[in-house]
Amino acid sequence: MQNFGLYKLGLAAMLSVSLVACKSTDEEAAAPAAAAPSASSNAAAASNQPSAAELARQRALAKTVFYFEFDKSDLSQEDRDALVYHAEELKKNPSSKIRLEGHADERGTREYNLALGERRAQAVERYLQVQGVAAGQMETISYGEERPAQQGTTEAAYSANRRVEMVK
Asked: Distance of CA 75 to CAs 7, 80, 88, 143, Å?
C-alpha cells in the first residue's frame, strides 16, 4: 500500500510539471494540454495494461493464506491490507460465502491447538466484519494441528502450519 501512495504522489508531481510546462495565456491552447493525460490514460486502458492499483488489488485477492507468529492470533499489517480487498469483493457479492480454516503447528496439546486455530480464524472473521462483511457470509472452523501444510519439526515447517486459509 505504501508503494501505491508513492505512485500517486509521483503521478501528481508529473502532472503538475506537465501543466506548468504547457502553461499558455491562450485558454484554447491550455485546454488540449489539460486533456492530454486523460487521452493517454484511455490509451493505456485500451492496451489492456492494468494500473498499479489494479495490480495491487489482484495480488491481494490472490492471497488466501494468512500466517501467524508462534502462539499468536494477531493479523499482520500486510494481511489486514489484503483482507480489505477481500472484504470489498465479499460486499459486492453478498451471496458469496467463505470458510476460514484455522490451523496451528504441532507444538502444544491437541485441545490447545484447536482453540488457537479457532482464535486465528475468528481474528480474520472479525476483521472482515469490521470492514462491513456480513457474518452470514463467513464460517469458521479449526483444524488445530490435524492438517499440516508442511511436515517436519523445523521452524520453517512450524511457520507454514500457523495459518488461516480462506476457502471460497
From this structure: 26, 6, 18, 19
